[in-house]
Structures are given as structure tokens and as C-alpha cells.
Design brief:
mainly alpha; single chain; about 5% strand
Length: about 150
Amino acid sequence: MDHAVLIEASLTAVRPRISPGSPAATGMEALRRSLAAVTGQGPAKTSEVLECASCHSFRDKHLTMFGQQCADCHTTETWKIAGFLHPSPKSQDCNQCHQAPPSHFMMHFAMMDQKITGQSSARVEQCYLCHQTDSFNAIKGVGWFKMH
């Protein structure tokens, strides 16, 4: 995503309608600072001026567990985190970062999930017994499985 293009488009769209000294002019100045940061032409860093969650909160796979300062780990050029390695597939501490879906805390878990996976004595926090690390829907011994 080229955030500079988005910011420039916003500036272009609102520039003719802004009165100097108005609250909108203040907002426009914030957009200018954002553009300067994104393009590397200003003193601020992109992470200091962009509020990622204001546009991307619906995509937050972390479910706000790590806050809303996306730029602490991610960049505007790529969502991947340089140097991040998911823990070993043999790791059994999944719930340090991941949360089970609400259905796992209802009868659905005993009625469906444990039967589908063949793990009748699995507990909700034992994700590693049923799930693979490449996708929540990749079920060990079953393959790709999408319930809903």
C-alpha cells in the first residue's frame, strides 16, 4: 500500500475547500506532516504520524492484544516483521499469543471439534493437539477444514 498516494489524494480533495486557520486547516497540516514522513521528506517518522488502527482495525489479527501501535513491529511497506520466526510447530504455548474462538468455549467444542479431530480429551488451551501452525483451519490428520 502506498500511503503517500492516499495522503496526497486526501490533500488534493480537500485543499480547495479549506479556510486558513480553520480546524480543517489544522487537519490538513497533519496530513502534510504525514505525507512528509511517509515520503521521507520530513522530520517525523511514519510511525509517529499514521494511526494504522483508524483504517486497519478490522484486519487486526492480534485482536488488539498488542495495542494499536502497529508501527512498533510493522512498516508501511510490508506487514511482515523482519526477523520474526513463528515458534516451533512443536511449541505448546499457543495461547501466549493466540486466543481460541468463542465456539471453543461452548458445546460446539465437545460436540464437533473434538470428534472431527479425534482428540476427545483435548482441552481448549491444547491448540497444538488439533491445529497446525500454518493456519488455524489446517487440522492435523484432517487437512483444511472450514466449519463456518
